[in-house]
Protein backbone atom coordinates (compact mmCIF):
# COMPACT_ATOMS: atom_id res chain seq x y z
CA UNK A 1 0.00 0.00 0.00
CA UNK A 2 2.82 2.37 0.89
CA UNK A 3 4.64 1.61 -2.35
CA UNK A 4 1.48 2.34 -4.32
CA UNK A 5 1.11 5.67 -2.53
CA UNK A 6 4.76 6.51 -3.25
CA UNK A 7 4.24 5.77 -6.93
CA UNK A 8 1.28 8.14 -7.07
CA UNK A 9 3.29 10.80 -5.23
CA UNK A 10 6.16 10.42 -7.66
CA UNK A 11 3.84 10.69 -10.63
CA UNK A 12 2.27 13.85 -9.21
CA UNK A 13 5.70 15.36 -8.54
CA UNK A 14 6.81 14.56 -12.07
CA UNK A 15 3.78 16.36 -13.45
CA UNK A 16 4.57 19.37 -11.28
CA UNK A 17 8.13 19.52 -12.58
CA UNK A 18 6.92 19.56 -16.20
CA UNK A 19 4.35 22.34 -15.89
CA UNK A 20 4.48 26.00 -15.05
CA UNK A 21 1.52 25.70 -12.68
CA UNK A 22 0.70 22.87 -10.25
CA UNK A 23 -1.59 20.33 -11.93
CA UNK A 24 -5.13 19.86 -10.81
CA UNK A 25 -5.24 16.97 -8.38
CA UNK A 26 -6.83 13.73 -9.42
CA UNK A 27 -10.12 13.21 -7.66
CA UNK A 28 -13.04 10.82 -7.73
CA UNK A 29 -15.74 13.40 -7.06
CA UNK A 30 -16.17 17.16 -7.60
CA UNK A 31 -14.74 19.72 -5.16
CA UNK A 32 -17.32 20.72 -2.62
CA UNK A 33 -18.26 24.37 -2.88
CA UNK A 34 -19.95 26.60 -0.32
CA UNK A 35 -21.90 29.77 -0.71
CA UNK A 36 -19.07 31.86 0.74
CA UNK A 37 -16.99 34.21 -1.31
CA UNK A 38 -13.86 32.05 -0.95
CA UNK A 39 -15.38 29.26 -3.09
CA UNK A 40 -13.37 26.63 -1.11
CA UNK A 41 -14.61 24.79 1.97
CA UNK A 42 -12.30 24.22 4.97
CA UNK A 43 -12.29 20.48 4.21
CA UNK A 44 -11.26 21.08 0.60
CA UNK A 45 -8.56 23.52 1.69
CA UNK A 46 -7.16 20.96 4.14
CA UNK A 47 -7.07 18.26 1.45
CA UNK A 48 -5.32 20.63 -0.94
CA UNK A 49 -2.63 21.50 1.61
CA UNK A 50 -2.12 17.81 2.35
CA UNK A 51 -1.62 17.08 -1.34
CA UNK A 52 0.90 19.90 -1.70
CA UNK A 53 2.87 18.61 1.30
CA UNK A 54 2.81 15.06 -0.09
CA UNK A 55 3.91 16.26 -3.50
CA UNK A 56 6.78 18.23 -2.01
CA UNK A 57 7.89 15.22 0.01
CA UNK A 58 7.67 13.01 -3.05
CA UNK A 59 9.71 15.46 -5.07
CA UNK A 60 12.36 15.50 -2.33
CA UNK A 61 12.55 11.70 -2.40
CA UNK A 62 12.75 11.77 -6.19
CA UNK A 63 15.75 14.12 -6.09
CA UNK A 64 17.59 11.64 -3.88
CA UNK A 65 17.23 8.89 -6.51
CA UNK A 66 19.87 8.29 -9.26
CA UNK A 67 19.65 10.92 -12.01
CA UNK A 68 17.69 9.16 -14.72
CA UNK A 69 16.18 11.52 -17.26
CA UNK A 70 12.39 11.20 -17.33
CA UNK A 71 10.57 10.22 -20.48
CA UNK A 72 9.82 13.49 -22.33
CA UNK A 73 6.26 14.52 -22.64
CA UNK A 74 4.78 14.56 -26.11
CA UNK A 75 4.73 17.92 -27.82
CA UNK A 76 1.61 19.80 -26.86
CA UNK A 77 -1.07 19.55 -29.49
CA UNK A 78 -2.18 22.68 -31.29
CA UNK A 79 -5.34 22.81 -29.21
CA UNK A 80 -3.20 24.30 -26.42
CA UNK A 81 -4.19 21.80 -23.78
CA UNK A 82 -0.77 21.31 -22.22
CA UNK A 83 -1.60 23.26 -19.08
CA UNK A 84 -5.14 22.01 -18.67
CA UNK A 85 -4.86 18.26 -19.21
CA UNK A 86 -5.68 16.31 -16.11
CA UNK A 87 -3.15 13.59 -16.68
CA UNK A 88 -2.44 10.36 -18.39
CA UNK A 89 -5.06 7.65 -18.44
CA UNK A 90 -4.39 3.94 -18.52
CA UNK A 91 -4.75 4.06 -22.30
CA UNK A 92 -1.71 6.36 -22.55
CA UNK A 93 -3.59 9.45 -23.69
CA UNK A 94 -4.27 12.95 -22.46
CA UNK A 95 -7.67 14.13 -21.33
CA UNK A 96 -9.42 17.27 -22.50
CA UNK A 97 -10.58 19.75 -19.91
CA UNK A 98 -14.36 20.29 -19.58
CA UNK A 99 -14.00 23.64 -21.36
CA UNK A 100 -12.18 22.11 -24.30
CA UNK A 101 -14.62 19.21 -24.51
CA UNK A 102 -17.48 21.69 -24.60
CA UNK A 103 -15.72 23.68 -27.34
CA UNK A 104 -15.16 20.52 -29.38
CA UNK A 105 -18.68 19.16 -28.93
CA UNK A 106 -20.32 22.52 -29.69
CA UNK A 107 -18.09 23.05 -32.72
CA UNK A 108 -19.19 19.73 -34.19
CA UNK A 109 -22.85 19.49 -33.17
CA UNK A 110 -23.87 22.97 -31.99
CA UNK A 111 -25.65 23.94 -28.80
CA UNK A 112 -28.71 21.86 -29.60
CA UNK A 113 -28.44 18.53 -31.36
CA UNK A 114 -31.10 15.88 -31.89
CA UNK A 115 -30.69 12.31 -30.73
CA UNK A 116 -31.14 11.11 -34.32
CA UNK A 117 -28.08 13.08 -35.48
CA UNK A 118 -26.03 11.81 -32.54
CA UNK A 119 -27.15 8.28 -33.38
CA UNK A 120 -25.94 8.70 -36.97
CA UNK A 121 -22.50 9.86 -35.88
CA UNK A 122 -22.04 7.30 -33.10
CA UNK A 123 -23.07 4.31 -35.19
CA UNK A 124 -20.71 4.52 -38.17
CA UNK A 125 -17.43 2.66 -38.26
CA UNK A 126 -14.69 2.77 -40.87
CA UNK A 127 -14.95 -0.65 -42.49
CA UNK A 128 -14.54 -2.09 -45.95
CA UNK A 129 -17.47 -3.56 -47.81
CA UNK A 130 -17.82 -7.36 -47.46
CA UNK A 131 -19.21 -7.52 -51.01
CA UNK A 132 -16.54 -8.86 -53.43
CA UNK A 133 -17.61 -6.39 -56.12
CA UNK A 134 -17.09 -3.37 -53.84
CA UNK A 135 -14.43 -4.75 -51.52
CA UNK A 136 -12.13 -1.73 -51.95
CA UNK A 137 -14.85 0.62 -50.70
CA UNK A 138 -15.76 1.85 -47.23
CA UNK A 139 -19.37 0.99 -46.47
CA UNK A 140 -21.78 3.50 -44.94
CA UNK A 141 -24.73 2.36 -42.84
CA UNK A 142 -25.88 5.71 -41.45
CA UNK A 143 -26.61 9.02 -43.13
CA UNK A 144 -24.45 11.93 -42.07
CA UNK A 145 -20.81 10.77 -41.81
CA UNK A 146 -20.56 10.19 -45.59
CA UNK A 147 -18.34 13.27 -45.93
CA UNK A 148 -15.75 11.74 -43.61
CA UNK A 149 -15.92 8.33 -45.27
CA UNK A 150 -15.78 9.69 -48.84
CA UNK A 151 -12.72 11.84 -48.16
CA UNK A 152 -10.96 8.94 -46.45
CA UNK A 153 -12.05 6.63 -49.28
CA UNK A 154 -10.38 8.91 -51.83
CA UNK A 155 -7.04 8.64 -50.04
CA UNK A 156 -7.42 4.88 -49.63
CA UNK A 157 -7.88 4.58 -53.39
CA UNK A 158 -4.77 6.67 -53.93
CA UNK A 159 -2.69 4.09 -52.07
CA UNK A 160 -4.44 1.05 -53.56
CA UNK A 161 -4.19 2.31 -57.14
CA UNK A 162 -0.94 4.24 -57.28
CA UNK A 163 1.21 3.27 -54.28
CA UNK A 164 0.91 -0.52 -53.93
CA UNK A 165 4.54 -0.78 -52.79
CA UNK A 166 3.70 1.32 -49.73
CA UNK A 167 1.09 -1.16 -48.56
CA UNK A 168 3.02 -4.40 -49.03
CA UNK A 169 4.55 -6.50 -51.77
CA UNK A 170 1.77 -9.05 -51.45
CA UNK A 171 -0.75 -6.53 -52.76
CA UNK A 172 -1.52 -7.02 -56.47
CA UNK A 173 -1.40 -3.57 -58.03
CA UNK A 174 -4.43 -2.07 -59.71
CA UNK A 175 -2.05 0.36 -61.33
CA UNK A 176 0.93 -1.51 -62.79
CA UNK A 177 3.81 0.49 -64.27
CA UNK A 178 4.56 -0.20 -67.92
CA UNK A 179 6.82 1.30 -70.54
CA UNK A 180 3.96 2.78 -72.56
CA UNK A 181 1.56 3.91 -69.87
CA UNK A 182 2.34 4.70 -66.22
CA UNK A 183 -0.52 2.51 -65.03
CA UNK A 184 -2.69 -0.19 -66.54
CA UNK A 185 -5.84 -1.47 -64.87
CA UNK A 186 -5.96 -4.98 -63.51
CA UNK A 187 -8.89 -7.29 -64.02
CA UNK A 188 -10.44 -7.39 -60.57
CA UNK A 189 -10.71 -5.17 -57.51
CA UNK A 190 -11.43 -8.17 -55.31
CA UNK A 191 -7.85 -9.46 -55.66
CA UNK A 192 -6.49 -7.13 -52.98
CA UNK A 193 -6.04 -8.92 -49.62
CA UNK A 194 -7.52 -7.56 -46.43
CA UNK A 195 -4.09 -6.82 -44.98
CA UNK A 196 -3.21 -4.53 -47.88
CA UNK A 197 -6.52 -2.68 -47.61
CA UNK A 198 -6.00 -2.16 -43.90
CA UNK A 199 -2.49 -0.80 -44.49
CA UNK A 200 -3.88 1.55 -47.13
CA UNK A 201 -6.48 2.73 -44.63
CA UNK A 202 -3.89 3.28 -41.88
CA UNK A 203 -1.58 5.23 -44.20
CA UNK A 204 -4.47 7.31 -45.48
CA UNK A 205 -5.54 8.23 -41.97
CA UNK A 206 -1.98 9.14 -41.03
CA UNK A 207 -1.50 11.30 -44.13
CA UNK A 208 -4.73 13.20 -43.53
CA UNK A 209 -3.97 13.84 -39.87
CA UNK A 210 -0.46 15.12 -40.61
CA UNK A 211 -1.87 17.29 -43.39
CA UNK A 212 -4.30 18.79 -40.86
CA UNK A 213 -1.34 19.37 -38.53
CA UNK A 214 0.63 21.30 -41.18
CA UNK A 215 2.81 18.20 -41.67
CA UNK A 216 4.34 18.83 -38.24
CA UNK A 217 2.18 16.68 -36.03
CA UNK A 218 -0.81 14.36 -35.90
CA UNK A 219 -3.21 13.91 -33.00
CA UNK A 220 -4.76 10.45 -32.67
CA UNK A 221 -7.89 10.32 -30.54
CA UNK A 222 -9.05 7.21 -28.73
CA UNK A 223 -11.52 6.27 -26.05
CA UNK A 224 -10.71 5.58 -22.43
CA UNK A 225 -9.02 2.28 -21.69
CA UNK A 226 -9.60 0.97 -25.20
CA UNK A 227 -6.09 -0.54 -25.21
CA UNK A 228 -6.68 -2.26 -21.87
CA UNK A 229 -9.81 -4.11 -22.97
CA UNK A 230 -9.60 -7.80 -23.76
CA UNK A 231 -10.90 -9.14 -27.05
CA UNK A 232 -14.39 -9.90 -25.75
CA UNK A 233 -14.75 -6.47 -24.21
CA UNK A 234 -13.62 -4.81 -27.45
CA UNK A 235 -16.22 -6.81 -29.38
CA UNK A 236 -18.90 -5.66 -26.95
CA UNK A 237 -17.89 -2.02 -27.40
CA UNK A 238 -17.89 -2.39 -31.18
CA UNK A 239 -21.34 -3.97 -31.06
CA UNK A 240 -22.97 -1.52 -28.68
CA UNK A 241 -21.09 1.72 -29.39
CA UNK A 242 -20.45 4.33 -26.73
CA UNK A 243 -23.03 6.77 -25.33
CA UNK A 244 -22.04 10.30 -26.39
CA UNK A 245 -24.92 12.67 -25.85
CA UNK A 246 -23.15 15.70 -24.41
CA UNK A 247 -19.80 17.40 -23.99
CA UNK A 248 -19.44 15.86 -20.54
CA UNK A 249 -19.90 12.36 -22.00
CA UNK A 250 -17.18 13.11 -24.53
CA UNK A 251 -14.85 14.49 -21.87
CA UNK A 252 -15.16 11.35 -19.75
CA UNK A 253 -14.13 8.87 -22.44
CA UNK A 254 -11.99 10.81 -24.95
CA UNK A 255 -8.20 10.61 -24.81
CA UNK A 256 -5.62 11.77 -27.33
CA UNK A 257 -1.93 11.52 -28.12
CA UNK A 258 0.26 13.81 -30.24
CA UNK A 259 2.88 12.43 -32.64
CA UNK A 260 5.59 14.32 -34.47
CA UNK A 261 6.82 11.48 -36.68
CA UNK A 262 4.80 9.51 -39.19
CA UNK A 263 6.28 6.20 -38.06
CA UNK A 264 5.04 6.65 -34.49
CA UNK A 265 1.62 7.84 -35.67
CA UNK A 266 1.33 4.87 -38.05
CA UNK A 267 2.12 2.48 -35.20
CA UNK A 268 -0.50 4.10 -32.98
CA UNK A 269 -3.21 4.05 -35.65
CA UNK A 270 -2.42 0.48 -36.60
CA UNK A 271 -2.51 -0.57 -32.96
CA UNK A 272 -5.90 1.05 -32.36
CA UNK A 273 -7.50 0.38 -35.75
CA UNK A 274 -10.28 -1.62 -34.08
CA UNK A 275 -11.43 1.58 -32.36
CA UNK A 276 -11.80 3.27 -35.76
CA UNK A 277 -13.61 0.21 -37.09
CA UNK A 278 -16.08 0.38 -34.21
CA UNK A 279 -19.39 2.21 -34.39
CA UNK A 280 -17.81 5.45 -33.27
CA UNK A 281 -14.94 5.20 -35.75
CA UNK A 282 -16.02 7.94 -38.17
CA UNK A 283 -16.59 10.41 -35.32
CA UNK A 284 -13.30 9.41 -33.69
CA UNK A 285 -11.40 10.12 -36.92
CA UNK A 286 -13.12 13.48 -37.37
CA UNK A 287 -12.16 14.42 -33.80
CA UNK A 288 -8.57 13.36 -34.52
CA UNK A 289 -8.49 15.63 -37.58
CA UNK A 290 -9.95 18.57 -35.66
CA UNK A 291 -7.45 18.16 -32.82
CA UNK A 292 -4.60 17.80 -35.31
CA UNK A 293 -5.61 21.08 -36.92
CA UNK A 294 -6.31 22.71 -33.55
CA UNK A 295 -9.73 23.84 -32.37
CA UNK A 296 -8.88 27.53 -32.46
CA UNK A 297 -7.25 27.20 -35.88
CA UNK A 298 -10.32 25.39 -37.22
CA UNK A 299 -12.51 28.25 -36.05
CA UNK A 300 -10.17 30.75 -37.73
CA UNK A 301 -10.40 28.78 -40.99
CA UNK A 302 -14.18 29.17 -41.12
CA UNK A 303 -16.19 32.09 -42.46
CA UNK A 304 -18.87 31.62 -39.78
CA UNK A 305 -17.50 29.78 -36.72
CA UNK A 306 -20.88 29.99 -34.96
CA UNK A 307 -22.42 27.31 -37.18
CA UNK A 308 -21.90 23.63 -36.29
CA UNK A 309 -19.75 21.50 -38.57
CA UNK A 310 -22.50 18.87 -38.69
CA UNK A 311 -25.46 20.55 -40.33
CA UNK A 312 -29.03 20.39 -39.14
CA UNK A 313 -31.63 18.99 -39.56
CA UNK A 314 -30.23 15.88 -41.26
CA UNK A 315 -26.75 15.69 -39.73
CA UNK A 316 -24.75 15.95 -42.94
CA UNK A 317 -21.04 16.67 -42.90
CA UNK A 318 -20.45 20.28 -43.91
CA UNK A 319 -18.16 21.36 -46.72
CA UNK A 320 -15.77 22.52 -44.02
CA UNK A 321 -15.35 18.94 -42.80
CA UNK A 322 -14.74 17.66 -46.33
CA UNK A 323 -12.25 20.44 -47.09
CA UNK A 324 -10.41 19.79 -43.82
CA UNK A 325 -9.88 16.17 -44.79
CA UNK A 326 -8.98 16.97 -48.41
CA UNK A 327 -6.64 19.94 -47.96
CA UNK A 328 -6.00 20.25 -44.21
CA UNK A 329 -7.95 23.49 -43.76
CA UNK A 330 -11.57 23.78 -42.59
CA UNK A 331 -12.50 26.46 -45.11
CA UNK A 332 -16.14 26.55 -46.22
CA UNK A 333 -15.69 27.32 -49.94
CA UNK A 334 -14.39 25.39 -52.95
CA UNK A 335 -12.97 28.18 -55.14
CA UNK A 336 -9.23 28.86 -55.32
CA UNK A 337 -7.57 31.26 -52.89
CA UNK A 338 -9.76 33.78 -51.18
CA UNK A 339 -12.32 36.30 -52.41
CA UNK A 340 -11.69 39.81 -51.11
CA UNK A 341 -14.68 42.17 -50.93
CA UNK A 342 -12.73 45.09 -49.48
CA UNK A 343 -13.09 46.69 -46.09
CA UNK A 344 -11.50 43.67 -44.44
CA UNK A 345 -14.26 41.35 -45.69
CA UNK A 346 -13.27 38.20 -47.55
CA UNK A 347 -14.22 34.56 -48.05
CA UNK A 348 -11.73 31.70 -47.77
CA UNK A 349 -11.24 29.03 -50.39
CA UNK A 350 -8.69 26.33 -51.21
CA UNK A 351 -5.17 27.73 -50.93
CA UNK A 352 -3.17 24.94 -52.60
CA UNK A 353 -3.33 22.04 -55.01
CA UNK A 354 -4.44 18.79 -53.40
CA UNK A 355 -3.72 15.07 -53.66
CA UNK A 356 -7.35 14.08 -54.33
CA UNK A 357 -10.03 16.47 -55.52
CA UNK A 358 -13.67 17.45 -55.34
CA UNK A 359 -16.56 17.88 -57.78
CA UNK A 360 -20.11 18.86 -56.94
CA UNK A 361 -23.53 18.78 -58.50
CA UNK A 362 -24.10 22.27 -57.11
CA UNK A 363 -21.66 23.70 -59.65
CA UNK A 364 -23.74 22.34 -62.52
CA UNK A 365 -26.71 24.15 -60.93
CA UNK A 366 -24.66 27.40 -60.77
CA UNK A 367 -24.68 27.52 -56.96
CA UNK A 368 -20.89 27.54 -56.69
CA UNK A 369 -17.66 27.33 -58.66
CA UNK A 370 -15.06 24.66 -57.89
CA UNK A 371 -11.54 25.99 -58.45
CA UNK A 372 -8.73 24.27 -60.29
CA UNK A 373 -7.04 23.23 -57.04
CA UNK A 374 -9.85 20.78 -56.29
CA UNK A 375 -10.92 20.14 -59.87
CA UNK A 376 -7.45 19.10 -61.07
CA UNK A 377 -5.85 17.20 -58.17
CA UNK A 378 -2.53 15.38 -58.32
CA UNK A 379 -4.29 12.02 -58.72
CA UNK A 380 -7.49 11.37 -60.72
CA UNK A 381 -9.69 10.78 -57.68
CA UNK A 382 -12.55 13.06 -56.66
CA UNK A 383 -15.05 13.23 -53.83
CA UNK A 384 -18.40 13.97 -55.49
CA UNK A 385 -20.93 16.06 -53.59
CA UNK A 386 -24.67 16.18 -54.17
CA UNK A 387 -27.26 18.09 -52.17
CA UNK A 388 -27.23 15.47 -49.42
CA UNK A 389 -24.50 12.89 -49.96
CA UNK A 390 -20.83 12.35 -50.83
CA UNK A 391 -19.51 9.63 -53.14
CA UNK A 392 -16.21 9.01 -54.96
CA UNK A 393 -15.19 9.11 -58.64
CA UNK A 394 -11.82 7.75 -59.76
CA UNK A 395 -9.80 6.64 -62.77
CA UNK A 396 -7.18 3.90 -63.01
CA UNK A 397 -5.09 5.83 -65.52
CA UNK A 398 -3.64 9.19 -64.45
CA UNK A 399 -3.41 10.14 -68.12
CA UNK A 400 -7.02 11.34 -67.88
CA UNK A 401 -5.55 14.32 -66.03
CA UNK A 402 -3.16 15.19 -68.85
CA UNK A 403 -4.24 18.29 -70.69
CA UNK A 404 -4.05 18.79 -74.43
CA UNK A 405 -3.37 22.16 -76.04
CA UNK A 406 -6.98 23.25 -75.82
CA UNK A 407 -7.28 22.36 -72.14
CA UNK A 408 -3.95 23.90 -71.21
CA UNK A 409 -4.90 27.21 -72.79
CA UNK A 410 -8.38 27.12 -71.30
CA UNK A 411 -6.94 26.39 -67.84
CA UNK A 412 -4.43 29.24 -68.14
CA UNK A 413 -7.04 31.81 -69.12
CA UNK A 414 -9.61 30.47 -66.67
CA UNK A 415 -7.23 30.75 -63.73
CA UNK A 416 -6.55 34.39 -64.59
CA UNK A 417 -10.30 35.00 -65.01
CA UNK A 418 -11.29 33.27 -61.75
CA UNK A 419 -8.64 35.15 -59.80
CA UNK A 420 -10.54 38.36 -60.58
CA UNK A 421 -14.06 36.95 -60.36
CA UNK A 422 -15.61 38.60 -57.30
CA UNK A 423 -19.09 37.28 -58.02
CA UNK A 424 -18.80 34.20 -55.82
CA UNK A 425 -18.31 31.88 -58.79
CA UNK A 426 -20.88 33.58 -61.00
CA UNK A 427 -18.52 33.61 -63.96
CA UNK A 428 -18.20 37.30 -64.77
CA UNK A 429 -15.68 40.07 -64.16
CA UNK A 430 -15.45 43.82 -64.57
CA UNK A 431 -14.06 45.56 -67.65
CA UNK A 432 -11.02 46.68 -65.66
CA UNK A 433 -10.36 43.11 -64.52
CA UNK A 434 -10.82 41.90 -68.11
CA UNK A 435 -8.05 44.18 -69.33
CA UNK A 436 -5.79 42.65 -66.69
CA UNK A 437 -6.69 39.12 -67.87
CA UNK A 438 -5.97 40.03 -71.49
CA UNK A 439 -2.58 41.44 -70.59
CA UNK A 440 -1.62 38.55 -68.30
CA UNK A 441 -2.57 35.81 -70.80
CA UNK A 442 -1.24 37.60 -73.90
CA UNK A 443 -4.58 37.86 -75.72
CA UNK A 444 -4.59 40.44 -78.55
CA UNK A 445 -8.17 41.11 -79.54
CA UNK A 446 -9.02 43.40 -82.46
CA UNK A 447 -10.37 46.76 -81.31
CA UNK A 448 -13.82 46.03 -82.70
CA UNK A 449 -14.06 42.71 -80.84
CA UNK A 450 -12.72 44.29 -77.64
CA UNK A 451 -15.37 47.01 -77.72
CA UNK A 452 -18.07 44.43 -78.42
CA UNK A 453 -17.09 42.31 -75.41
CA UNK A 454 -16.86 45.32 -73.06
CA UNK A 455 -20.12 46.91 -74.21
CA UNK A 456 -22.19 45.43 -71.37
CA UNK A 457 -19.87 46.75 -68.65
CA UNK A 458 -18.91 43.24 -67.54
CA UNK A 459 -17.50 40.13 -69.22
CA UNK A 460 -19.05 36.66 -68.97
CA UNK A 461 -16.72 33.68 -69.13
CA UNK A 462 -18.76 31.63 -71.62
CA UNK A 463 -18.86 34.51 -74.11
CA UNK A 464 -15.14 35.22 -73.69
CA UNK A 465 -14.23 31.58 -74.28
CA UNK A 466 -16.20 31.46 -77.51
CA UNK A 467 -14.22 34.47 -78.71
CA UNK A 468 -10.94 32.75 -77.77
CA UNK A 469 -11.95 29.63 -79.71
CA UNK A 470 -12.43 31.71 -82.87
CA UNK A 471 -9.29 33.81 -82.39
CA UNK A 472 -6.15 32.96 -84.38
CA UNK A 473 -3.28 31.45 -82.43
CA UNK A 474 -0.89 34.25 -83.30
CA UNK A 475 -3.31 36.59 -81.50
CA UNK A 476 -3.41 34.42 -78.38
CA UNK A 477 -6.47 32.41 -79.38
CA UNK A 478 -6.81 28.71 -80.12
CA UNK A 479 -8.65 28.50 -83.43
CA UNK A 480 -8.70 24.87 -84.58
CA UNK A 481 -9.16 24.30 -88.28
CA UNK A 482 -9.45 20.51 -87.84
CA UNK A 483 -12.28 20.78 -85.33
CA UNK A 484 -10.98 17.72 -83.42
CA UNK A 485 -8.85 19.37 -80.76
CA UNK A 486 -9.79 18.33 -77.24
CA UNK A 487 -11.15 14.90 -78.05
CA UNK A 488 -10.74 12.24 -75.32
CA UNK A 489 -12.11 8.79 -74.49
CA UNK A 490 -11.45 7.11 -71.13
CA UNK A 491 -13.03 5.10 -68.31
CA UNK A 492 -13.83 6.17 -64.77
CA UNK A 493 -15.38 4.39 -61.79
CA UNK A 494 -17.96 5.68 -59.35
CA UNK A 495 -18.35 4.31 -55.84
CA UNK A 496 -21.34 4.97 -53.60
CA UNK A 497 -20.64 3.48 -50.19
CA UNK A 498 -24.10 3.79 -48.66
CA UNK A 499 -25.66 0.37 -48.13
CA UNK A 500 -29.23 0.81 -49.25
CA UNK A 501 -31.71 -1.00 -51.46
CA UNK A 502 -31.72 -0.35 -55.19
CA UNK A 503 -34.92 -1.83 -56.62
CA UNK A 504 -35.03 -0.25 -60.07
CA UNK A 505 -35.81 -3.56 -61.66
CA UNK A 506 -34.42 -6.97 -62.54
CA UNK A 507 -33.66 -9.60 -59.95
CA UNK A 508 -34.01 -7.25 -57.03
CA UNK A 509 -37.51 -6.23 -58.10
CA UNK A 510 -38.53 -9.87 -58.41
CA UNK A 511 -37.13 -10.49 -54.93
CA UNK A 512 -39.47 -7.83 -53.57
CA UNK A 513 -42.44 -9.33 -55.37
CA UNK A 514 -41.52 -12.67 -53.87
CA UNK A 515 -41.68 -11.22 -50.39
CA UNK A 516 -37.97 -11.13 -49.65
CA UNK A 517 -35.95 -8.06 -48.75
CA UNK A 518 -33.52 -6.97 -51.51
CA UNK A 519 -29.83 -7.11 -50.71
CA UNK A 520 -28.43 -3.89 -49.29
CA UNK A 521 -25.05 -3.18 -50.76
CA UNK A 522 -22.78 -0.35 -51.92
CA UNK A 523 -22.40 0.17 -55.66
CA UNK A 524 -19.42 0.43 -57.99
CA UNK A 525 -20.17 1.58 -61.53
CA UNK A 526 -17.83 1.76 -64.52
CA UNK A 527 -18.47 4.65 -66.90
CA UNK A 528 -17.09 5.27 -70.36
CA UNK A 529 -16.47 8.99 -70.86
CA UNK A 530 -16.19 10.59 -74.30
CA UNK A 531 -15.02 14.18 -74.43
CA UNK A 532 -15.79 15.54 -77.90
CA UNK A 533 -13.97 18.43 -79.54
CA UNK A 534 -15.02 22.03 -79.08
CA UNK A 535 -18.39 21.31 -80.71
CA UNK A 536 -21.48 20.68 -78.63
CA UNK A 537 -22.15 17.02 -77.72
CA UNK A 538 -25.13 17.03 -80.11
CA UNK A 539 -22.97 18.20 -83.01
CA UNK A 540 -20.34 15.63 -82.17
CA UNK A 541 -22.85 12.78 -82.05
CA UNK A 542 -24.28 13.85 -85.41
CA UNK A 543 -20.83 13.94 -86.96
CA UNK A 544 -19.90 10.55 -85.53
CA UNK A 545 -23.11 8.98 -86.82
CA UNK A 546 -22.53 10.33 -90.34
CA UNK A 547 -19.10 8.66 -90.49
CA UNK A 548 -20.26 5.27 -89.19
CA UNK A 549 -19.46 3.61 -92.51
CA UNK A 550 -15.76 4.25 -91.95
CA UNK A 551 -14.41 1.10 -90.30
CA UNK A 552 -11.32 2.90 -89.01
CA UNK A 553 -13.44 5.34 -87.03
CA UNK A 554 -15.84 2.84 -85.50
CA UNK A 555 -13.61 2.21 -82.50
CA UNK A 556 -13.41 5.91 -81.70
CA UNK A 557 -17.12 6.58 -81.99
CA UNK A 558 -18.82 7.35 -78.68
CA UNK A 559 -21.40 4.99 -77.27
CA UNK A 560 -24.99 6.24 -77.05
CA UNK A 561 -25.05 8.93 -74.38
CA UNK A 562 -26.82 8.27 -71.08
CA UNK A 563 -27.67 10.77 -68.42
CA UNK A 564 -27.71 10.86 -64.64
CA UNK A 565 -26.87 13.59 -62.11
CA UNK A 566 -23.34 12.18 -61.93
CA UNK A 567 -22.85 13.12 -65.59
CA UNK A 568 -23.57 16.74 -64.69
CA UNK A 569 -20.79 16.52 -62.09
CA UNK A 570 -18.39 15.00 -64.61
CA UNK A 571 -19.16 17.82 -67.05
CA UNK A 572 -17.96 20.36 -64.52
CA UNK A 573 -14.53 18.75 -65.04
CA UNK A 574 -14.83 17.87 -68.75
CA UNK A 575 -17.41 20.30 -70.02
CA UNK A 576 -18.44 18.48 -73.21
CA UNK A 577 -18.39 14.94 -71.86
CA UNK A 578 -20.90 12.25 -72.74
CA UNK A 579 -21.10 9.12 -70.57
CA UNK A 580 -22.36 5.57 -70.90
CA UNK A 581 -22.53 2.59 -68.54
CA UNK A 582 -24.07 -0.86 -68.17
CA UNK A 583 -27.03 -1.52 -65.88
CA UNK A 584 -28.69 0.93 -63.55
CA UNK A 585 -27.52 4.56 -63.59
CA UNK A 586 -24.96 5.50 -60.94
CA UNK A 587 -26.47 7.20 -57.91
CA UNK A 588 -24.95 10.15 -56.03
CA UNK A 589 -27.66 10.15 -53.33
UniProtKB/TrEMBL annotation:
Kindly give the PROSITE patterns that the UniProt entry links to this protein.
Answer: UIM
List GO molecular-function terms, semicolon-separated: cysteine-type deubiquitinase activity; K48-linked deubiquitinase activity
Which Pfam families does its entry note?
A: MINDY-3_4_CD
Amino acid composition bias (Acidic residues), ranges on this chain: 1-11
SMART domains recorded for this chain? Answer: DUF4205, UIM
The family note in this entry says: Belongs to the MINDY deubiquitinase family. FAM188 subfamily.
Per the record, the domain of life is Eukaryota
Task: Give residue ranges for domain Deubiquitinating enzyme MINDY-3/4 conserved.
Answer: 105-463
Disordered: annotated segments: 1-49
- Offer one example of a GO biological process linked to this entry: proteolysis
**Which InterPro entries did the record assign?**
MINDY-3/4_CD, MINY3/4, UIM_dom
Q: What is this protein called?
A: Deubiquitinating enzyme MINDY-3/4 conserved domain-containing protein
